[in-house]
Amino acid sequence: MILMTVRQVQKVTGLSRTTIYRLMDLEEFPRPVKISASGRAVRWIESEIEEWIASRPRAEGVTAQ
């Protein structure tokens, strides 16, 4: 299992930190796992992020520039 920081998640999704947390609040984005006793340190499971990306609708009518 590979764990990702919020910055890594931002990089692969193209989403801002605010958008990631907003989507989590709407239950539309994977939740991170707590990796410290305090719960302040969290990481996302890479396979869950990859599945989320794969589940997104494909853009239609978009051409390469």
Q: Topology of this structure?
A:
Elements: E1 3-4, H1 6-13, H2 17-25, E2 33-34, E3 42-45, H3 46-55
Antiparallel strand pairs: 1-3, 2-3
The count of DSSP E runs of length 2 or more, i.e. the number of strands, is 3
**Proportion of helical residues:** 40-55%
Number of helices: 3
Q: Unreliable segments (pLDDT under 50, ≥5 consecutive)?
A: none
What fraction of residues sit in β-strands? 5-15%
Protein architecture, described:
The protein has helices spanning 6-13, 17-25, 46-55; strands at residues 3-4, 33-34, 42-45. The N and C termini lie far apart (36 Å). The protein has one domain. Strands 1-3-2 form a three-stranded antiparallel β-sheet. 42% of the residues lie in helices and 12% in strands. 8% of the residues are buried. It is elongated. A hairpin with a 7-residue loop joins β2 and β3. The chain is an alpha+beta fold.
Describe this structure in a few short sentences.
This protein has 65 residues and is α+β, with helices and mostly antiparallel strands. The protein is built from three helices and three strands, in the order βααββα.
Main attributes of the structure:
65 residues; three-stranded antiparallel β-sheet; alpha+beta; 42% helix
